[in-house]
Write a structure and sequence with these properties.
Layout: H1 2-16, H2 23-30, H3 34-46, E1 50-52, E2 59-61, H4 63-93, E3 96-103, E4 106-113, E5 128-129, H5 135-143, H6 156-175, E6 178-179, E7 188-196, E8 202-211, H7 221-237
Antiparallel strand pairs: 1-2, 3-4, 3-8, 4-5, 6-7, 7-8
Length: 243
């Protein structure tokens, strides 16, 4: 715990300093032995969280810290950017609306608006959705990083499963949306479409959720247009521009 605390204190100090600092300055500021400060700084440099100038030997925050900050900024702003769009989608569709974000390769529900029907959903922000068998998960597999996809085994059954999944994801990519009728809960369906960030990478998905009576296994053209338009609008709020 002490070693972790030292590393985090150094990282925080580097991030708050307006200029690069030398190891002696950092050690004095944090009340550390110079050798201790140097050892932890080397770890931060090796992991990309800090960088050392070759000419001055001073340290400053590294590119990894910037990248993580940008990803966190997107996650915190996604809910705010989506809320008004979700409300419009709920009002036009009459169905519940969910928003998910991809957080550490997990599909997490970050917002939910109940619909104008008698059915109220128990899913709450913070719920993790499966990558398979859910509309949010399928969209993440189809449009998110390929690292989400399960590794292909060597058996014939595993190869068949991988081929079937590949065909399913190709179809989702072509149509731009995914459903999961009677899979999370019998009699229920969801229709989800992807949300992108400023540089075109996958952020999450927005979906309508309701009874198969209202969202059939093959959704209506109007429902598909409502959800995909909402996803594109949220993406534009996040800085995404279609190519």
């Amino acid at each position: 715990m002490q070693a972790s605390d030292i590393t985090l204190r150094l990282l925080e100090h580097l991030a708050l300093e307006p200029e690069p600092r030398g190891v002696t300055e950092l050690a004095q500021a944090l009340g550390l032995a110079k050798t201790t400060a140097h050892r932890h700084l080397r770890t931060l440099v090796e992991r990309g969280f800090a960088r050392q100038h070759a000419s001055t030997q001073r340290y400053e925050p590294g590119i990894k810290l910037f990248q993580l900050g940008e990803r966190l900024r997107e996650r915190f702003t996604l809910g705010r950017a989506a809320r008004e769009v979700m409300q419009r989608l709920r009002d036009t569709s009459g169905q519940a609306v969910t928003l998910s974000a991809l957080i550490e390769d997990r599909v997490i529900v970050v917002d939910l608006l109940q619909g104008h029907t008698l059915i109220e959903f128990g899913i709450r922000p913070g719920t993790e959705m499966r990558l398979t068998g859910t509309a949010h998960g399928r969209v993440a597999l189809a449009f998110g990083p390929t690292s989400l996809r399960p590794a292909q085994g060597h058996s014939a059954a595993n190869r068949r499963d991988a081929a079937a999944l590949g065909r399913q994801l190709s179809a989702i990519q072509k149509q731009g949306w995914a459903t999961a009728a009677n899979e999370v809960m019998f009699g229920m369906n969801a229709l989800a479409a992807p949300v992108y960030g400023a540089n075109g990478h996958y952020l999450g998905a927005v979906a309508i959720v309701g009874s198969v009576q209202y969202i059939p296994a093959k959704p209506s053209a109007a429902q598909i247009e409502q959800v995909t338009r909402a996803a594109a609008t949220i993406s534009s709020h996040m800085g995404w521009r279609p190519t």
